[in-house]
Amino acid sequence: MVEEWWRMRTKQLLGRLGNQLSQWPISHQIVLLLAAGTMVIAIASGFVVRKLEQEHLSDRLREQSITTFSILSTTSIEAIIREDKQLLNTIVERYIGTLPDVFSVSIENEKHQVLAQWQSPDKNPEHALLTYEQPVFFNGAVLGNMRLQLNPDPHYVNAEEHVAKLRWFILGILLTLTMIVVVGINLLAIRPVQLIHSRLLDLSKGDVFSKLDVSCSKELGRLSESVQIMAGVFRDQRQRQIDLHKAKQKAEAANKSKGEFLANMSHEIRTPMNGILGTLELLGDTPLNGMQKEYTKTIRVSGESLLGIICDILDFSKIDEGKLELDPEPFDLRATIEDILVLLGNAAREKKLELLLHYPLELPHWFEGDSIRIRQIITNLLGNAIKFTSAGHALLKVAISSTGRNNAAISISVEDTGIGIPENQVAHIFDKFTQVDASTTRNFGGTGLGLAISKQLATMMGGDVQVTSQNGRGSTFSFSMILPYAAEQEEKPVSYTALKGARILVVDDHEINREILQEQLTKWDVKAKSVESAEEALEVMQQAVAAGIPYEIALLDYRMPEINGEVLARKIKADKSLHATQLVMLSSVAGRSEAKRMRSAGFSAFLLKPVRQFYLLETLKTVLKTRLEKGEKDTLRLHKEVECTLDDNNILQKASQSKQVLLVEDNLINQKVAVKILQKHDCQVEVACNGKEAVEVLKGNQFDIIFMDCQMPEMDGYEATAAIRKQENNIRHTPIIAMTANAMKGDREKCLAAGMDDYLAKPIDKNRLQATLDKWGS
User: Fold this and answer.
1) Environment class of residue 521 by beta-carbon count within 10 Å: exposed (0-12), middle (13-18) or buried (19+)?
2) Could you tell me what percentage of the chain is helix, strand and coil, using 3-state DSSP and rounding each to the nearest 5?
3) pLDDT value of position 649
4) Neighbours of 371 (CB within 10 A)
5) Residue 10 per-residue DSSP state
6) 3-state SS, residue 96
7) Looking only at Cα atoms, what is the longest distance across the chain?
8) C-alpha triplet 207, 190, 41: angle, nearest 5°
9) What mean pLDDT do residues 592-612 have?
10) Cβ pair 604, 638 in contact under 8 A
11) How far apart are the C-alpha atoms of 465 and 478, rounded to whole Å?
12) pTM score, whole prediction
């Protein structure tokens, strides 16, 4: 612990010393560095000289010991043999006493008995002693041993004095050289650098006119010239900055005008579009002959296409300016996707395409995200798949993997069997205003913005849009995003116990559709089997009857080669052994108007593809229950019964009955459209032509909901909302919903900040209007 403390303490002190030294001027740092180097060199030189002196002294003493042992051995062998101690002592004293470095001598026989011993009376035994030993031989035999101790202390003293003098001499020379070097560096380098530094500081403060006069080396002279050139560059940059500032002010003014123009354009376009599409919706509910319905449909499709193009352009403008923001809220991903499939179902049916969804039952449904933008991406990808596919299918697959406790990585792929994309065009498919075929003779139109917008929206959601394609064989677009789970939304458990153990046969020539239905039924604990043709279906059903385990329900596709679903149904019902099997039609071609013909063919229920998972489940439960009860219900009535049980619109309409609504709208056409639409939702509507009139109406009346336009003469929607809230004085609170053609960034927030409760952008979508009525009218 103590060593660790010292280590940390030393590290801290060294760090502080380093910080202090780094603040010194460079000249002082150079002086300190050279002085430290000089001291190190001087000390190292002293140690080297001392080491050399010591090695020289040690060699000399070793030679002296060898010579002494040689003389003693020669002169004392006879005395050692006779063990004549007196003679040996005499020989030692006579010879050794004259040697200056010898401290003591000892001679022993082979039994280690001392025969002679001498010690100098003049030498200090505390000084360093060097001991040497050597045996005494005679005719190859050991007679004894000699021990010699040397005391070379005077030599050590002399060596230390010599080293000290040499060290001071070297130190003096090095310090002198150091001072010369420091003065030279200061004059030749540090001073010019300081002058250049001072000039650079002047430049940083805006002084671009002062001159720099420095007498120095070529290198620093070039640096001085560079500083002068830099000053000239700064003078030019200052002028450019002034010009850029003026240009920036002009650009900001132009950008502001552009934003105002986009906002105004959005409002001016959406206002008449609301009247066109709303009137068409009302017109569609009136009695029309076939030609009138076809004309109405053409106008509606064209209007929706035009609105889509307008929305793409406006979205692109928002994204391009960084003004598009996401509006996350809890939503049901599966329900959102199924809504899209239903919306695009007619387009797929018109081209006789299979529109398929693979959303595994075990995957969660509820997430926190911008469902409108997610719907926009999926609609774009799936709409393109239908648009560029003339035969086959469009398959939407969903996969979800957790990336953490609260987030999920969602991957949605759209696979089609369409025309595909040439390899040289794949890299540019997401570029703005880019189309695979941009020629004037192309078969498919479009702005070339949909995929670019989808990719940027996906990036905002932490994901991406990618594509793999083979020209002439189809494409697969993959859309990924990161969304948090909507923890406050509880997944409602789906009850499928009524189907447990039921035997159901799937007949469909499309392999992917069979696989999806098989997976769904298996996870509902159904004993399911799938076949690809009518002939195989009849064979399998007859085998099941023979085994005593007939199929209770058969799901039949309408469009199959050779024998279609309707013909197969008549064959099944004509066979007495198979007659008891209940039949359910899954059709991507036939319309609901043909339900009566399906009844005559023997079907118990009739569903249009793509079928919502919940619709399919409830239909199977209802059909199975009917079979068990041995009841008789015609196909059309059974289909309507199932549909009414599941149709959210009917439920919402019941919830919105008898609502008192104030519509504040200055446009006459939009007044008529909004009134008719609201009346269809069982609302009692009163109209105010501007904000001032609305405030007056509310003084003597109460309403359940107020739908407020924003741009109106005399008093706009923001001022009217403020006046209404002031008039209510916190005694009551009437929900005010913005119903406006202002659909740019910040418009929703502006409405909420003015005191409104919700926001609907024109043209008004009937489903969103119904959801708003249900939310605020209760």
Assistant:
1) buried
2) 55, 20, 30
3) 33
4) 19
5) H
6) helix
7) 158
8) 160
9) 77
10) yes
11) 6
12) 0.51
